[in-house]
Design a protein that fits this description.
Helix content: 25-40%
Strand order of the largest sheet: 2-1-3-4-7-8
Structural class: alpha/beta
Shape: globular
Number of strands: 8
Radius of gyration: 16 Å
Oligomer: single chain
Strand content: 15-25%
Largest sheet: 6 strands, parallel
Distance between the termini: 12 Å
Number of helices: 9
């Protein structure tokens, strides 16, 4: 397995590194033993990109970066390091220079946009009783309940942070669209994917939480990125 890159998984809003649990198990079954999952503070795009860069810089060798949701904005901002060989976007934001996730969202609001609410401290939450239908309607109710209660809320201003120099302009890209996504409009995902000139786009009939509901298909796409950028 010495020829395999390290896979660095980057979570998005309303969850932590554990959102990748099913993908991690599937990758391990397929022989990947160099897997890392960033735990982003979700305090600003600059903070999250810096946390991700630090993890990439700890890796001696090639890296494939995988981002879910807002994690796509993070890998877009942090993925310019020379050992990053590929970017894989899982139902994710992929802003261009001067764009933010919030701007993209407002241009084409998703179905569950109104189920996001700020608290008095400036954090954004998905209403607990709306989490299942908004984020993970294709998961079991108990699984969605745990996600709802343990959700990691971002600082609201993070939604408006602009990407500066998008790494996808210089790195090969793979993208997974969730056709039943209620957190990022599927047409926004398609538009962001196509303008990156990706090596491959796949569409899954899945919620925003495709990394949990369709881990095998997600890992298939990651593996394709590994094959095409290794050796």
């Amino acid at each position: 397995m010495a020829d395999k890159p390290t896979l660095v998984l980057v979570h998005g809003f309303w969850g932590g590194a554990a959102h990748w649990s099913d993908v991690i198990v599937e990758l391990n079954k397929r022989g990947y033993d160099k897997i890392r999952a960033v735990e982003n503070p979700l305090t600003s795009l600059a903070d999250d990109a810096e946390r991700t860069r630090k993890m990439i810089q700890q890796v001696d060798g090639p890296v494939v970066l995988v981002g879910h949701s807002y994690g796509g904005a993070v890998i877009t901002e942090a993925g310019d390091l020379p050992n990053v060989k590929a970017l894989v976007y899982i139902a994710a934001f992929a802003p261009d220079a001067g764009e933010s996730p919030g701007q993209i969202t407002q241009e084409n609001p998703p179905a569950a946009f109104d189920n996001i609410a700020p608290d008095s401290d400036g954090y954004l939450w998905i209403k607990q009783d709306k989490f299942h239908e908004s984020f993970a309607q294709d998961l079991a109710p108990d699984q969605a309940l745990v996600m709802a209660v343990t959700q990691k809320a971002p600082v609201g201003s993070t939604f408006g942070d602009n990407v500066t120099a998008p790494a996808w302009r210089n790195k090969p890209v793979w993208y997974q669209v969730s056709t039943q996504d209620r957190m990022i409009h599927p047409d926004n995902e398609r538009r962001m994917a196509q303008r990156m000139n990706p090596r491959k786009v796949i569409e899954l009939e899945a919620s925003h939480a495709s990394l949990a509901s369709r881990p095998q298909a997600v890992v298939d796409l990651i593996e394709e990125a590994v094959r095409e950028t290794s050796g």
